[in-house]
Write a structure and sequence with these properties.
By secondary structure, the protein is an alpha+beta fold. It has three domains: 104 residues, PAS domain (Beta-Lactamase, 2-Layer Sandwich); 120 residues, no CATH class; 147 residues, 2-Layer Sandwich (Heat Shock Protein 90). Helix content is 52%, strand content 21%. The strands form three sheets. It has a six-stranded antiparallel beta sheet, with helices on both faces. Strands 8-10-11-13-12 form a five-stranded mixed beta sheet. Helix 7 runs antiparallel to helix 9.
């Protein structure tokens, strides 16, 4: 007989089920719970056919015969699925005590499911990593595209800013040329009068050396004044390449020298008040253009108002290490519906205004010179403040 005690011990300790098979493939004996892994009806017949118990071995008769003949020590059929929910390994050995086979049914369900779950987690992680890699690739492509679009928009904005600055500069140049025309009218009139007088005196033979010298000195003074006006105009619009210290009063006076004649002809009085000598480090020409833009805004507001005594007051104050310049007018103030947006591009209260002058002034003071520019209405008009 086969080694029954050994088989029973193995099955008890390792949860195996077994059956004993003879040369005719009949089951001679089987363990109590073998029906878990086979059709229970097949165990109820007188002669139990081994292949009914384990149909997975059909077609393997030759291999089994090799076990009987001692040509194979063991035959292993791994990972066999059994209804309803079992995984088993089938081990076939030859009994040492008799011409029979010992067939062990090893329950590997827990191990197999653990391995399957582990593999599933591994597969899911691999899929997740693959998905993350794809998403990262897509995100990188998206970021590159967004960066390209941002770079394009930044370049467009810089170009637009340059165009706006150029447009504002051209508008200011047109205004300044008109002012120079006003300033040149008087000296040109004086030069014409001197020339006419000298011609008459010469023709009559009454031109003395003293009168000639006096009138020529007067004429040269008028030419010098005109030349100074052109020089101021050129300096005003020459771009500042480097920052430097400059006195605010001198800068404001250079602007007033250019606009005084036109403002006087239009009955606009400008008063400059300095409360402490204030200087700045920055671009003087850009600062003068801001002053001009605010003065022109105030002048246009005064000309469109019904105010008889048209007044602009420029006040320079030293505030510790800072300098505050306020420009007040008595034109009645900025309409409340646009005062919050007065520095916004293309916002203007003028019928023919471009809405660029104050917009560029804001950029110059706050972006280029790291200062502050704001406006508020007073009881009589508007007050612009520049803090640097």
């Amino acid at each position: 007989m086969y080694d029954k005690e050994i088989v029973d011990a193995i099955c008890m300790n390792h949860r195996y089920e077994y059956c004993i098979v003879d040369r005719h493939f009949h089951v001679l004996e089987y363990s109590e719970n073998l029906s878990k892994y086979c059709d229970s009806d097949s165990l109820q017949v007188a002669k139990i056919d081994f292949f009914d118990v384990s149909p997975e071995l059909v077609g393997m008769e030759e291999e089994i015969e090799c076990i009987f003949a001692g040509e194979l020590k063991e035959l292993l059929i791994p990972l066999v699925f059994k209804v309803p929910d079992f995984y088993i390994n089938i081990h076939i050995y030859k009994s040492r005590a008799s011409d029979t086979l010992i067939v062990l049914f090893e329950n590997i369900t827990d191990i197999t499911k653990t391995q399957q779950e582990s593999q599933q987690v591994t597969n899911e992680n691999l899929l997740l990593l693959d998905e993350i890699a794809k998403k990262n690739t897509q995100l990188e492509a998206f970021n590159q595209e967004m960066q390209r679009l941002v770079d394009e928009e930044v370049a467009k904005n810089i170009e637009q800013k340059h165009m706006l600055e150029l447009q504002t500069r051209h508008a200011q140049m047109g205004e300044m040329i008109a002012m120079i025309t006003h300033q040149w009218k008087q000296p040109l009139s004086v030069i014409q009068s001197i020339g006419t007088l000298l011609q008459i005196k010469y023709e009559r033979g009454t031109l003395s050396q003293t009168l000639f010298t006096e009138k020529m000195d007067n004429l040269l003074a008028q030419v010098t004044h005109m030349n100074q006006t052109v020089g101021d105009f050129q300096k005003f619009f020459m771009p500042s390449k480097e920052q430097d210290f400059f006195y605010i009063k001198e800068t404001v006076l250079s602007v007033l020298h250019l606009v005084q004649m036109e403002y006087t002809l239009q009955n606009v009085n400008i008063e400059l008040i300095e409360e402490g000598e204030a200087s700045l480090f920055g671009y003087a020409n850009e600062y003068t253009q801001v002053i001009l833009a605010i003065l022109q805004n105030a002048k246009d507001a005064l000309l469109s108002s019904e105010q008889v005594d048209k007044q602009i007051i420029i006040r320079i104050q030293k505030k510790g290490e800072a300098a505050l310049v306020t420009i007040d007018d008595n034109a009645g103030g900025i309409p409340e519906e646009i005062i919050e947006d007065i520095f916004t591009q293309y916002v203007t209260s003028k019928e023919q205004g471009s809405g660029l002058g104050l917009y560029i002034a804001k950029i110059v003071i706050e972006n280029n010179m790291q200062g502050q520019l704001w406006v508020k209405n007073t009881e009589v008009g508007a007050q612009f403040s520049i803090l640097l």
